Amino acid sequence: MITRASLLALALATLAQPAFAADAAPTGPASSPATPATVDAWLAKADKAYFDQTVIAGRNEWIAETYITDDTESLAADTNAAMSALQVELATQAAGYAKVPGLSPEVQRKLVMIRTGITSPVPADPALGAEFARLQARIQGLYGKGKGTLKGQPINGSDIEAAMGTSRNPDETREMWISWHDAVGKPMKADYVRMVEIANQGARELGFADVGAQWRSNYDMDPDAFATLTDKIWGEVKPLYLQLHCYTRAKLNAKYGDAVQGKSGPIRGDLLGNMWGQSWGNIYDVVAPAGAGDLGYDIGDLLTAKGYDPVKMVKAGEGFYSSLGFAPLPATFWERAQITKPRDREVVCHASAWDIDNKSDLRIKMCTKVNSDDFVTIHHELGHNYYQRAYSNQPSRWYMEGANDGFHEAIGDTMALSITPEYLVQIGLLDRAKVPGPDKDTGLLLRQALNQVAFLPFGLLVDRWRWSVFSGKVKPEGYEAAWNDLRRQYQGIVPPVERGADAFDPGAKFHVPAVVPYTRYFLAGVLKFQFYEAACKQAGWTGPLHRCSFYGNKAVGQKLDAMLSMGASKPWPDALEAFTGSRQISGASLVRYFAPLQKWLETQNKGRTCGW
After folding, report:
1. What is the pLDDT of residue 31?
2. Does residue 477 carry a catalytic annotation?
3. 181 among known catalytic residues
4. What is the pLDDT of residue 32?
5. If you write DSSP's letter for every residue of 317-361 in order, what string do you get?
6. Does residue 374 sit in helix, strand or coil?
7. 586 — alpha (psi -120 to 50), left (phi > 0) or beta?
8. Distance CA 271, CA 253 (A)
9. 387/461 Cα distance (integer angstroms)
10. How confident is the model at residue 24, as a pLDDT?
């Protein structure tokens, strides 16, 4: 996840003046006839004001997430309202200026970016903005301080995620799943309902039908065309997912029996090694095929054996980027990042990456544990940091973003794909003599698919649910049923117990209370394979794609930096073409990567009724 400054920009300013002060920019378009020159002048001042406020916001937001108290929650609420007011005022003025004749295509595009870049639009009424901010601060606090139980004892969010990955007792996973969803999700439902009402009113004031329509308009294409694109991509990869689901279900049935997991139908979600069933890699030991499934090593074990602690894990991640020719992380990173969970206070443990000053104050925020998951996450989060630094020289703050939000997520994931046996050898974690041979390729690909392919339907359905909620198609009394229907439809997964209408399981996923759009992760899930395949071709790799490592290849780094440096200054197809040669996001690279596995899965699944 990437964290953008959004909480604390204008705390003091809100108390005494409008969010966008008169001396910060020209008056709105209604005050006098505007010309292209008027719009240019407004954009220049608006850009500086926004840049400056995001710096203040980033510093204070860091405090709010790394020191959770009643005071920081209250401050976050006040200042989140102020930032929202600023963004809405800019978006409202941008909508007016967009009607000025004679604007250049670049100016028109920037006005669209300003208008669609607000994930939580609030109405012009300051009271409603303040109410929304209070509600969001409260539900984010519920998530950050949330606890479940294991064997009747309280367990925090970070620890419960780890325990879900290691427990093979279905009674324990059921307890953890239910306790987490009930303790974290259920209490925030009423607040979330009200947030939807307020945000939709704000979106309508900006000219959108609802918040979902606004989110879908932020991709340099028609919002309906964007929805169609995501459907097309899912159609390309769905056959592979169906085979993976069918095989995994059979293995779970063999381990737990019909009373826990049936031979047909959906999978019980708490059995998959992850609280949300969004990645299944933690249960590789359960589903690994005989012989081929034994890889001979575990990354977590390798890290422990080599004496890695969380800081050394981050150093290893930095080393990957350095090998491609990127400059080392700044000294301030090591002074200011939260790499492990502090023992003296509550923090938001969900991993995120930060560019506090839009220049070089890069940080990650994690509660790192020495295991395979966090090793991968470190490579991912640092991808955000290196992207942030690459585009920091862009002339506009609005260009200091990924080409689209899926790009930002995909960059780090591309590096994570390169955590292959060859890479582990290159950095001294794995002895070359222990590199699994070609007979282990099925196991290597299966382990990857359990994380990469299994995630895709979840990556799609979170926003599918929110789009329906925002549009009013799904009413509050139907929130829970709609969520479970989509999970069954896309993932073939059901909760371990029946869920009542008073439940609010979507709220137990960080991105829902945090109001972070999620389709970006679906896009990243396919983009990373496009980026990875392109990098491997550029590196001259000739072996199986899934074994490729471009670690140490500075030619790849140079071409990658050229794309990253573009930021959002050009439409995303231009950026995609700069690195891959293609202007279309497609699942084809992913399908090629896993083609040997899909063939093997189809053989394993003969005689089984796949689907649910």
Report:
1. 55
2. no
3. no
4. 66
5. HHHHHHHTTPPPPPHHHHHH-B-S--SSS----S-EEEETTSSS-
6. helix
7. beta
8. 10
9. 27
10. 37
Q: Is 30 a catalytic residue?
A: no
346 included as an active-site residue? no
Q: Which residue has the higher pLDDT, 85 or 140?
A: 140
137 belongs to the catalytic site: no
8 A C-beta contact, residue 46 and residue 98: no
CA quadruple 65, 71, 73, 79: dihedral positive or negative? Answer: negative
- Annotated active-site residue in 25, 94, 130, 350: 350
Name every residue whose Cβ is closer than 8 Å to that of residue 64 and which is 6 or more positions away in sequence.
7, 8, 72, 73, 75, 76
pLDDT of residue 26 exceeding 60, the answer is no
Let me know if 379 is a catalytic residue: no
Q: How far apart are CA 493 and CA 510, in angstroms?
A: 19
Q: Which of 386, 479, 521, 532 is catalytic?
A: 521
Regarding predicted confidence, which is higher, 129 or 537?
A: 537
Task: Mark whether 305 is an active-site residue.
Answer: no
Whether 564 has a pLDDT exceeding 70, the answer reads yes
**In degrees, to the nearest 5, what angle opens at C-alpha 573 toward C-alphas 517 and 525?**
45
Q: Are 313 and 374 in contact (CB under 8 A)?
A: yes
Q: Which residues contact 228 (CB under 8 A, 6 or more apart)?
A: none
The pTM score is 0.83
In this predicted structure, the answer to whether residue 449 has a pLDDT above a threshold of 60 is yes
Mean pLDDT, rounded, for 565-577: 97
- Sequence-distant (≥ 6) Cβ neighbours of residue 202 within 8 angstroms: 88, 118, 120, 121, 122, 123, 128, 211
